[in-house]
Amino acid sequence: MPHPAIATEDRQEKGTEQRELTGSEILLRCLIREGVDTIFGYPGGAVLPIYDSLYHEEIRHVLARHEQGAIHMAEGYARVTGKPGVVIATSGPGATNLVTGIANAQMDSIPLVCITGNVPQNLIGTDAFQEADITGITMPITKHNYFVTDVRDLARVVREAFVIASTGRPGPVLIDIPKDVSNAKTSLEFPDKVFIRGYQPTTDPHPLQVQKLHAAISEAERPVILAGGGVVTSGADQELKAFAEQAQIPVATTLMGIGGFSGQHPLWMGMPGMHGTYAANHALLECDLLIGIGARFDDRVTMGRLDKFAKGAKIAHIDIDPAEIGKNVDAYIPIVGDVKKVLQAALDGLPRSRSADWLRRIEEWKRQYPVTFRPSEKTLKPQWVIRHLYETTGGDAIVTTDVGQHQMWVAQYFRFARPRSFITSGGLGTMGFGFPAALGAQIANPDRVVICVTGDGGFQMTAQELAIAALENIPVKVAVINNRCLGMVRQWQEVFYQERYSEVDLSGSPDFVKLAEAYGVKGLRARTEEEAKRAWQGALAHPGPVVVDFEIDPAENVYPMVAPGSGLDEMIMGDEEA
Ligand SMILES: Cc1ncc(C[n+]2csc(CCOP(=O)(O)OP(=O)(O)O)c2C)c(N)n1
Questions:
Q1: At what angle do helices 154-166 and 23-33 cross, to 10 degrees?
Q2: What is the SS3 assignment for 359-372?
Q3: 23 sits in which H/E element
Q4: Which of the listed residues 274, 300, 459, 486 should we mutate to test ligand 1's pocket, taking the one with most ligand atoms within 8 A of CB?
Q5: pLDDT digit string (tens) for 30-39?
Q6: Is 130 one of the catalytic residues?
Q7: Mean pLDDT of the chain, nearest integer
Q8: Strand pairing category for 522-526 and 477-482
């Protein structure tokens, strides 16, 4: 079944508004018709007509302080709502400042519609002021992109962009609009359905493949589910729960899959891979059936050592994107389809696996080798901080992170019970993502607690967006896990480069409490557990945005750890966990 917005033949269904409008007016009418309530952006010469039209429209625009901030806000918004996030930037530097966010969205399958202005078409190719070939630049990092040459195409292009961004495997779509097109006039015709040649994502699974999956499950003694971001994206958490319970299969959730299966469920084994749990990694090593669901078997899970990965297992791979099947691992049972629909189909007649002994063994691993840390009287432990954030919110918060050690500690110690609650940069590993993503997530969910756990390095990449938190009173709670260094890089230099610490010292960073206050945001600091408890309580009680600077021991490392190039059987447990 195609998406309801995709026509099955070359026929467009049209709305009726016939008055002559400019390209920029058409653009905004189309965005409103798509249900867009918030645009994140930054103006400039090439988008002046669009911003002039915006002046007359009742649509919320968040004026970020950097285009990277704007696009990560749009990503945070999209990740928690499932709706495409919308960002606008001007030509040249405005457009190129979006590039990191676009690549991030492409890697993490985030639906985005990115609108850029460009110089008028008569200046294209002349190295005009603020000219950049943004469609060329973003060709490999967008799901699709458009350079609009005729205002009469604009309404159709916007409709197509939303359909492409949000259907199949979601992703970023860019629309580059030269200034002459946004100024040109035509009558507006809304196309309701669009025909996109070659784009008909397969959503329903082949029944024969589902039968094969049933047969494999009924024979399996050591089955494992590897649940990825596709479970969250397709809204299949309830189906996955029923599937795992009915077939009695333990579940590992990848970084992107966290929240797709409750971290409080007895069948949950935690995250696998480089900083994964002993139970999840050993289950992947020893399973006889591995069911990958909306997961892409990337190198942070397999360690690139496919020779050692699930060696004795049949692999079933469920994914909406046929290009993922067979990309990293050979699938014995490939199933192309929307994860939710595949699981719904598979639940009908789903057999129980013969996993009783296996589940007992996994329970034993979980009991014997939990993710743990040694408490300290002297220093504030980051793991303790994350566990405290978890306990004080009952796990019912949206948490965004940046990239580095703190990100892994959140993945390990915060037990997410709900999907769309853990918002992190998984594929691209984008420092600077966490804070603006939290602002976007909070804008979409004003009533939920939104926490940004960030590093002192990553926070400084997009901290200028504190202005937005203050101005719009967006009550995000920022927890800076401050180790005064680039912690994850420092850890690698300690473990793999014989403690040669090269350019990881972040001396010269601002006082984060004063930085927050300079923007009109509440700032608090904690160096001990007592101070941390008090500061965090104050942060949660405060109705507006807060930055809490948790000063931790710079020598703290993330364990367990698997060295790159090693197999999952070579886990470094760390002295605390050994
Ligand atoms: C934009 C960007 N530049 C560089 C890196 C490489 N990198 C990965 S983790 C890391 C250190 C992060 O330090 P910090 O933000 O303080 O977090 P911590 O690891 O200390 O928790 C760096 C530099 C990256 N992921 N993203």
A1: 30
A2: HHHHHHHHHHCCCC
A3: helix 23-33
A4: 486
A5: 999 999 999 9
A6: yes
A7: 95
A8: unpaired
